[in-house]
C-alpha cells in the first residue's frame, strides 16, 4: 500500500464575473465613448471621428496604432476599413486603464487589441470582424510587421468576453487569464482561449490556424461559461500555469460547439498543460449532425482532467474521437494526465447515429483513473461496428461506469481498462465523488472494477479490456475475485480482455449466455519479466467465444511467466471449469523457476477444459521442470476441434502427462486432431504416466519431440480412422502403454531407440503401423519389443530404421540392447497386412534381428507377407530361438540375413520350438556371410506351408540340425553358395507333399559346396528331390570341401541316417569329391539310408575329385544299411573316378544290408580312370532287384581296375542282382583289369562261412554278362575260398561274352583253397527252356565246381572270331578250351549242346564227349598233328588270330575318354572329352540289351 496522494482542488470562480475584471471607473463609461489618443506609428491610415462613430481607414496591409485608451461606449461604433480580409491592424493601449467595449466593433480584416491592463467585452457588446485578437500580452512592432505573432509579457489584466463576438477568420483571447461568458462564433474558423505568459498565434491568410502557449503564467486560467461555436472549425482552450496551488486552469461550464460540416470535422481541445487541471462541466459538442457527417475530435488534456458534463463526438456517418487524459494506452503525441475522473453524471458519446462504426473514447491517466459515468461508442443503427473505449490508469483504476460499444448490425466494439493493480469484484467500484475543491482524491493503490459495470458493457455487445500499464508504484496485477460474476446475458459478440503488467488471478466466474464472449487473459502485457495466470476455483464459459491465456505483447504467441515464489507456473489451472463451446482455447505458460512447470494442471485439483468445435492450444516452457504438467484428474476435451500441446524445456521435460499414483487425465477430441510437440535440450521430451488417456474418434494424433518420449502407462487412442504419429529425435520408450487406432496409421519414429515393453499394446485395426528407429539417419537406434502386443488388424507393419524403414535398418546400441530389432515375449498380428522387420547389429557379436530363447513370441498374419531382414558383423544377422512362432495363413515369409563373420540366419534352439508357417504362401530364407554360416537351422526349428513354396538361400554355408520343413504341395529349395549340411542328434525332416525338394550347393558356381545329408529326411510325396550343385543342380554337382577342418566333409553328397522319399517324383543326387581321397556321393559310415520313390526315377551321379591322382570314388553305397527303391520308376547310379577310386561301389565288406529295388529299370554305371573298378557291386547283404518287367544294368569302365566287379567278400555276405521279366546286363570294359569280374569269397581264414553272389532273372528275363579287356580277362568268374556265384535265368537266356586282346575272353574257374580243402563254386542255370551261351575267342572253363545247368534249353560255347580252334579235353589245343572237369560240369537237360561255331577253325577232342554235344565245324583227333603250313596248324591259327586282331578284332574296347553307352536313366559319367568337373553329362537311352552294333560303329582310331 502506498500513502494517499495529495488532494488537488479547483478554486471557486467569482460569482459575479465582472467584479474582479473591470476597474471601478469603467462602470460609469459614457455611452458615446470612443478610443482616445490614436497615433499611427507604422503603416498608413486615417482616423476619422464623427459623433459617436470612429472610422479607421487602413491603407497598408499592416497598421500599428498606439492609443491612450481604447473604449467603445454602448452607443458608440468603431469600424476598421481595411484593404483586405487578411489585412491586420494592431491597436496597442499605452494608458493605464483596461479597454471596455460596450458598443459595436466591426472590420473587414483582422483587428488586434493589446492592453496589458485588461480587455472586457461587456454584455450587449457586438463585435463583427474578419478576425479578432484580444490580448493582455504585448506584441512588438518588429514581430508584428514580420508576421511573427508571438505575444509576450506579464500584464496583470484579464481578457473577458461577456458580449457577442463573431469573426470569419478566428478569435483569440490571449492573456494570463481569459474567460468567455458571452458568445463567440467563428463558423469554419478557430476560437482560442490561450492563458499564459507567452503565446504564439499562427495565421494563414485571413484565418487563425493554430495557437500555442509557450510559457506558463502565474495563476493562468482559461474559462468558458458561455457559448463558443466554431462549426467546421476548431476551438482551443489552452493554459499553462506556474501556480502549483492552482486547482483548475482550463474549465468549461458552458457550451463549446465545433460540429462537423461535410468534410470539415470539428475539433475541440481543452489543454491544461503539464501541471494544470482541465475540467469540463458543460457541453463539448463536436458531433456530426448531417447525413454524411462523421463526429469530430474532442481532447480534454492536462495533468489532471475531469469530466462531469457531456462530450459529444457522435456522427451520422460514424463516431469521432474523444481523448480524456491522453491517447490510446497512453501513446501518441498528446500529453498524458496523471489523474482522470469521469463523474457519474458525465456522458461521453462517440456513437455512429445512423450508419458507420462507433468512434474512439479514451480515458487515460498515468496514475489514477476513476470512471463512474457513461461512455457510448455504438455502431450505426443501420450498420457498422462498435467503437473502441478505453478507461485506464497505470497505477489505479476505479471503474463502475457504463460503456456501450454495441453494434446492432455489426461487430461490437471494445472496452479497454488499463489500471495498475485491478480487482474485479462483485461489489461497486471504489472511489470518491466529484466535489468543489476535491475533484480527484485517490483512496488506495488498488483499483476495483465492478463486475456489474463490465456486464453492462458486455450486454451491449461492447468489448471490455482491462490493462494495467507498465509503470507506477504497483506491479500491475489483475484479480477476478472468487465472488465476482462476469455474466454476459445480452448483446452480440464481445471480448473481455484482462491485460496485466504482471499477474492475473481468476477465482470467480466469467460466462456468457448470449452470443460469444471472447476472453483474453494477458499477463506481462508489456513484455515484463514475470506475469503468471492463475485460474483457481474459477468457471469460464464463453458460449462459443475464444479464450486466450498468455503473456507479452501478443498473448496468442507470448507466454505468461511464473513468479519466483508462490505461483511459479506460467499458467496454473486448478479446480476450474473452462468451456468455450465452438470457441478456440489458447494457453501459453512459462515456468518462473528452474523446477516449475510452464503450464500446470496439478494433481491436487481437478479441472475441465472443453470445447465443442473449438481448437485447444497449450504451449509451455520450462527450465528444469515440466513445460506442460497435467496430472491428477483432468479433462482437456473438444468434440470436433483440434488439440495442440507444445512444450519446451532446457533440462526438464517438455510434457508430463498423467500420474504415478492415481487420477485420470483425459485429452480427447472426436473428429479433430491432437498434436503434442516437445523440445528439451537435456531432459525428456514427453512423459506419459498411469491414468493418462489421449483419444480421438476420427482425428489424427501426433506426438513429436526432439528429446526422449517416454510412456510409463497411458493410453493414446484414435478410434475411427485417425492416424497416430509418435516422432522423436531421441529414444521412444513405451512401458505399459496402450496405443490404438481404429483403422488409421500408427507411425512411431525415433531419432535413436524404440523400446516397447511391459505389456504395451499397439493396435491399428487395419491401419499401417511403423516402428522406425534412427529416423533421421543416425548411426544407432534399435527397436525392442518385450512382453508387448502389436496388432494391426489388417494393416501393414514396418519395423526398421533410417529415413525409409521399409528398406532401412534399426541398428543396435554398443551396449545394452545391441540387436537392431529384438522381439521377446511379444505378440505381433497383422491379419491381412504385411510385416517388414529390418535390424542391424550394434556390436561385433550381436544379432541384427533377435527373437531370443529366453522369451517366446508370436508373429502372425492371415494373408499378409512377413519379411525379416538382418545384418551383423560377427553375430547372427537374424537369430530366432526359443518358443517362437512366425506364421501366416496365405501370405509369404521371407527372412534375410547378412553377416560378415557370423551367421546370416540362425533359427531354432535346443530348448524349445521355433515355428515358421504359412498356408498357400511361400517361405524364403536367405542368409549371407563371409566366414560363418549363411543359414543355420538348429534343433527345435519347424517350417511349414500349406502349399506354398519354401526357399532357403545361403551366401555361404547352410546348416540344418534337428529341424523340420514341411509344405503341403509347395516346393522346397535350399541353395547355398558353399555347403549345405544337416547336423544334430535328431533327424531333420523336409516334407513337401507333392512339391519338389531341391538342395543346391555352390549355387553360384563356386569351386566347393557339399551337401551333408546326415540326419536328413526328405519326403516330397510326388515332388522331385534334387540334390546337386552349381547353377543347375539337376545336372550340376555338389562338390566336397578341400579339407576336413572345422567339421567339413570332403564328399560332394554324404548320406547318414538319411531318408529321401519322393513318391511319384524323381530323385536326382549329384556329388563330386572335394579332395583326392574323397567320394562324390557317399552312403556309408555305418548308417541307415533310404532313397525311395513310387513311380518316380532315381538318379545318383557321383564323381571323384577332378585330379588324375585322386583315389576317391564317384559313388559308394556301403558300410551301413541302405535302401534305394522305387515301385516302378527307374534307378540309375552313375559314378566316375578321375583317379584310382571306383566309379560306383555298391556293397561293403561288413554285414550291412543294401537293397536297390524297383519295378522299373536299374542302371549302375561307373568309370574309373585309374586302378579302381568302373562299377563294384557286392558286399554285405546286398540286393539289387528290378521287379516286374524292369531291367537291371551294371556297366563299368576302368583303366587299371575292373570294368565291373560283382560279388561280396565276407563269410555271410550275399550279393543278389535280380530281375523278373526284365533282363540283366552286366557290361564291363577295362584296359588292364578284368572287363567283368563275377566274384565271391569268404572272409580270409574263414572255413565255414560262404560269400555268395547271385545274378538271377526269375520270370523270363535274359541275363547278359559282357566283359572286355585289353590286357586281362574280359569276363572272369572265379570265386575263391568258400565263395559261391550263381547266375540263373528262369525261362530266360543267359549270354556270357568276353573279349580280351591279351588274355582269356571268358574265364570260369572256381578255386580250391588248398589249406582248408574248401572249394568255391560257379553255377550257370538256364531253367525252363532258357539257353546258355558262352562266347569268347579264349574261353577257360575249369574246376570241378563249375556247373552249366540246363532245363530244356540249348548250351552254346563258341568263339566270337572266325577260325578260332576249340579244344576239348586234356592235351588239346585251342583258344577256347574246355577241361575234363568242365565237361563234367554240364548238368541238367539240354536240348542241344553246341561247341564251336560254323566259322570256327576246328575242334580238337581229347575226351569223350556227351552224346548231345554238337561240334562245329568238325572234330579233329588230338593226335592228328598238323603239318607245317597246314592252315589249321597252331602256328597258322596264331597268325590268323594276330592278323584278325590287327585288322579289327570283335573286342571293340573304347578309349576311356569316349562315352559309355548305358541304360535310359544312366548318365555319361565325368571324364568325357570337353566336360568340366562338377557337371553331370548327357544320357544315352538307346542301348539297353545289345549294344554290339553301335559299338562296332566306333572308329578304328578309338579302339
Tell me about this structure.
With 1503 residues, the chain is mainly β. The longest helix is centred in the C-terminal third of the chain and has 15 residues, at 1434-1448. The chain has a 96-stranded mixed beta sheet that branches. The chain is built from five helices and 143 strands. The model is unreliable at 1-26, 430-444 and 1420-1503 (pLDDT under 50). Strand 18 (198-204) and strand 19 (207-215) form a beta hairpin.
**Percentage of residues in helical conformation:** under 10%
- Characterize the overall form: rod-shaped
- Secondary structural class: mainly beta
Task: Assess the beta-strand content as a share of residues.
Answer: over 45%
Total number of strands: 143
User: Low-confidence spans: pLDDT under 50, at least 5 residues?
Assistant: 1-26, 430-444, 1420-1503
Helices, by number, come to 5
Radius of gyration, taken over Cα atoms and rounded to an integer in Å: 63 Å
Distance between the termini: 133 Å
Mean pLDDT equals 83
What's the story with the biggest beta sheet?
Answer: 96 strands, mixed
Characteristics:
1503 residues; mainly beta; 96-stranded mixed β-sheet; 31-stranded parallel β-sheet; disordered C terminus
Write a compact overview of the structure shown.
The chain has five helices and 143 strands. With 1503 residues, it is mostly beta strands.
